Each structure stands twice: as structure tokens, then as C-alpha cells.
Fold this protein.
Amino acid sequence: MFLKKNFYLLLVCKANITRSIYMHAYMNKMLKNYTFSKKINIMSVGTNAIKGLPPHDVIRHIAALNELTIKNLRSKRISQKIVDKANLILTMENEQKKIILEKFNNVENKTFRILEYGQNNLYSDNLDIPDPTGKDTNDYKKFIEISHTESKRILKQLSEL
């Protein structure tokens, strides 16, 4: 990757306390394995986030088990300023993608659901990553598995730009 300037990747979910904040921390950890790590900046927000909330208790526990630093991350609400800064916007669900496309200008070519970005339909028709918040252990396990797999895939693709 021969980026001449910083690249901003924006991860979006609904509240920015579980999914996007976890992937944010996981990708930051994974970036240490790439030579271009100083050129990539990971950001996360929620379409309906309440500014300043800490990560969900369960996700904090899972992050600790995976040696991720999330204690200083706080929820942020999506804004025009953040959208303008982002080179690539990846959402967890079609719901967030629709909100972004309706609310913000000039985002059509840089906004995708995570499971549709750079894919050749490897997944089923449902390209949403469900929110495990308040659900059982299996829902969290599925989210973490998808999160880790997709984070690695996305960073690999970005390394080939």
C-alpha cells in the first residue's frame, strides 16, 4: 500500500457501544501487523448513539479476554464532519447504510455494509451483522467470529490498495 495521506475507515452500528466499538478496537490491534498501520485510522460511531457512553459490559469483558484496549473508547454519534473525513464507511446493517445514504451527501461510493464490501456474495442473502446486545452467549460468539474474520479480510484488502 502506497498511501500518500491518511486513510480513515469509519465503522457504524446503531449505538456504538457493542459492535462498531469492538471492531474498532480489534482492527486497531490487527493494524500493528501491517507496515501501513500509521496511515490507517479507524473510527467508530452509531447512527443513534448517545455521546459518551462506555462500551457495553459484556463487550468490555470479551475485549479483555481478547487483549483489546477499549476502556478509553466512548460512543459517538455520526455527524457530517466524521462522514466527510471518512474514506470508507462500513455499516453493520442495511438500516445504518440507508440512514447514511439518506442523511449525508456524497457518500454513495464509499458506504457499504461490512459483509458486502469487496465480496463476491460469499454470504447468504442476509448481509447484516446482528446486534448481540442483550442476547445469549451464542449470539456474542457469532458476532466475535464474524468481527475477527471480517476485520482481517478488510485490512488485507486495504493493504492491497
